[in-house]
């Protein structure tokens, strides 16, 4: 059995705060602070450039990738770290498109995170391809024989709706297409099984449920059947077969290494590596069970105590990730009032109050406090205040 009381103790959770926004930025694992400090004093300070070899900075993207592999149903040597998620979406999508020459259609849904759609739109323009965007429930019917790549985010960032990864991947394969999954809201939140689903490509970020810190690098996975054939358009020198030969022409490195682009963010990878220690000994089955327990309790509590809000997530836990959202016409002000009262969730336009439940550190006491505080704010109308209407740059 996973010891979730112990994993909770591994985080710095500010006193008086109930944190339900780990689906946007995970809290700091206490060990990350010391690990980064040690890296600065023992490695960067003392080793200088020799740290690339001596401290293993150069191989860190693969080593950290191997630790993430276990959490997404992938094997060793199949995942590599680096860049932002938007860039990894571009790399995976461009490589997948190149594996389906003659086909020009990318299919996604309108619940996808906008950055994924922007990247696909730009790539489609450059490749003279077509991006088709349908409603999430229409995806299956929209898989047609002209499809090149099905590109979906498994868990919807607003509603928490979870796609059937294995089923949709099988449908895409039947149509002769490839399936690319964005795991931003899945990795560390649900029991992802890329191998079992027979997916083709996957990408994800590490600053949400994996708690790598703001700006932590993204990951990319390629199914082994494609790893030596995939040809990314974004050809950087660290994805070259022999970067330090400084050849003028590009020759991809074997396997997943070709998905590297440039110099890895070593300090950020060090913080992420410390954050991944918390996952040692965590079973994904336990994680999923606890996530369902927390989200079910939250829905039940809010529906009983807050008639002013409407559930915006699937009621069936099997169709949900680890987040729950509710709608309120003045959602922004309500969320600001909630944050001022010590319960941090977030707001997503136009009217969504979003709450992430991270089994590693959230518990039923958090659920109870969040329900009680939301009910109080809605009942006493304290959210209806000018200071809660001022929109910040980042929401
Ligand atoms: C599903 C999804 N894709 C892409 C992104 C963009 O990631 P990044 O800002 O790291 O490029 C996010 C979050 O910001 C996301 O939730
Ligand atoms: N990456 C973010 C950032 O740099 C600032 C603020 C928020 C984010 C996020 O990750 C947003 C997130 N993808 C979402 O689901 O809304």
UniProtKB/TrEMBL annotation:
Annotated InterPro entries: Kynureninase (IPR010111), PyrdxlP-dep_Trfase (IPR015424), PyrdxlP-dep_Trfase_major (IPR015421), PyrdxlP-dep_Trfase_small (IPR015422)
Sites where the protein binds pyridoxal 5'-phosphate: 85-86, 113-116, 153, 182, 185, 207, 237, 263
Keywords: Hydrolase, Pyridine nucleotide biosynthesis, Pyridoxal phosphate
Reactions mediated catalytically: L-kynurenine + H2O = anthranilate + L-alanine + H(+); 3-hydroxy-L-kynurenine + H2O = 3-hydroxyanthranilate + L-alanine + H(+)
Pathway listed: Amino-acid degradation; L-kynurenine degradation; L-alanine and anthranilate from L-kynurenine: step 1/1; Cofactor biosynthesis; NAD(+) biosynthesis; quinolinate from L-kynurenine: step 2/3
Tree of life domain: Bacteria
Family under the similarity heading: Belongs to the kynureninase family.
NCBIfam families reported for this sequence: kynureninase
Record's protein name: Kynureninase
The encoding gene: kynU
